[in-house]
Amino acid sequence: MSKPATSRFYISRKIIVGEWSWEKLNCIVCALEIKEGDERIYCPYCGSAAHRDHILEWLKTHSNCPYCNRKLTLKELKHGG
């Protein structure tokens, strides 16, 4: 009786280190933190936030959300903070 064929495989382990904070909110245009009191606007599709001035400037030359890439107009933006 012969032995059954076996195959060898290797599993490598990767350690990924990152930081997540529910309290920290970064602008999807400039990637800087949106601080308490900063005027911010949210994408109605993905919920991503941006500094008000940054997203308004972005929409002068683009017609999409910089994060989810969905079509976006000024009328659709959700204001907050």
UniProtKB/TrEMBL annotation:
User: Where does the record place the RING-type domain?
Assistant: 26-69
Q: Which residues form a coiled coil?
A: none
Do you know which SUPFAM superfamilies this protein is assigned to? Answer: RING/U-box
Q: Which organism is it from?
A: Odinarchaeota yellowstonii (strain LCB_4)
Name this protein carries in UniProt: RING-type domain-containing protein
Task: Tell me the InterPro entries matching this sequence.
Answer: Znf_RING, Znf_RING/FYVE/PHD
Question: Highest taxon of the source?
Answer: Archaea
